Amino acid sequence: MGGSQSAALAESICDWWSLAGVDALVGEEPAGWLVLPPANDAAAPRPKTAAASEPELAPLPAALQRKEAPQPAETKGPVVFPDDWDDFQQWLATGADVPGSQWDARRVLPVGRAGAPLMLLTAWPEIDDQRDAALFTGAAGQLLDAMLLAIGTARADCYVASLAVTRPAGGRCDGDEAAELDRLLWHHLRLANPGRLLLIGGDIVRMAAASELPDTRGKLLDINQEGGKVATVAVAHPAMLLARPAQKAAAWDSLKLFNRGR
Question: Which CATH superfamily is domain 85-259 in?
Answer without folding.
Answer: Uracil-DNA glycosylase-like domain (3.40.470.10)
